[in-house]
Amino acid sequence: MMNKNNFDYADMLNLPRHVSKRHPPMPVEERAAQFSPFAALTGYEDAIKETGRLTQERVELGEDEKLVLNEKLRILMDRKGQSPEVKITYFQPDERKKGGAYVTAIGRVKKIDVYEGMLKLQDGTQIPVGDVTGIEGELFSD
Predict the structure, then answer these.
(1) What are the backbone angles phi and psi of residue 107, rounded to the nearest 5°?
(2) pLDDT for the residue numbered 53
(3) How far apart are CA 26 and CA 13, in angstroms?
(4) Mapping DSSP to helix (H, G, I), strand (E, B) and coil, where does residue 8 land?
(5) Alpha-carbon distance 81 to 73, whole Å?
(6) What are the CB-based long-range contacts (under 8 Å, 24+) for 97-103?
(7) Is the pLDDT of residue 14 over 70?
(8) What whole-number distance in Å separates Cα of residue 129 and Cα of residue 1?
(9) 3 against 58, higher pLDDT
(10) How far from chain centre, in Å, is Cα 117?
(11) Residue 67 clears pLDDT 60, i.e. is over it
(12) DSSP string, 41-77
């Protein structure tokens, strides 16, 4: 027994394939492009990764820690001609989301710009003084 669908189209099953006289046939490479995957949610995977990326909260220094840090900055300013090598830990805010990361830079101090509030190293690294959480080096008796 033939079902209704096959019976309805029986008259067309053996017809030759239509070839347009107005439009040239599409090249095989272009036909294949029609079936390439479609990314409906472009950027979604990147957004998920960004959301999952962890950041740290900024820790507020206590008064004693601030005094020690200010003393070390003063010593660095007094000895700026010596270009002492130091290890500076500072908070680097994240550009995309709340929080950031604690970063350590090692280098020789070139300048402490009081007006800009920047500590500049000889390698070009610029660190906002307000983000500095620790300074170590031979100059200090830690």
Answers:
(1) 180, -175
(2) 73
(3) 24
(4) helix
(5) 14
(6) 97/50, 97/53, 97/55, 98/55, 99/55, 99/56, 99/57, 99/58, 100/55, 100/56, 100/58, 101/55, 101/56, 102/56, 102/133
(7) yes
(8) 88
(9) 58
(10) 25
(11) yes
(12) TTTHHHHHHHHH---BPPPPPPHHHHHHHHHHHHHHH
Q: How far is CA 118 from CA 3, 20, 24, 75, 130, in A?
A: 83, 72, 68, 16, 8
Q: Which of 100, 107, 137, 136 is nearest to 122 (CA)?
A: 107
Give per-residue burial for 32-64: e unless 16+ CB within 10 Å, then b: eeeeeeeeeeeeeeeeeeeeeeeeeeeeeeeee
Q: Concatenate the DSSP letters of all residues of 18-39 into one string.
A: P--SSSPPPPHHHHHHTTS---
Q: Which residue has the tokens 């200090």?
A: 140
Write the single-letter amino acid at 46.
D
> How is residue 60 written in tokens?
């507020």
Rounded Cα distance, 32 and 15, in Å = 25
Provide the whole-model pTM.
0.61
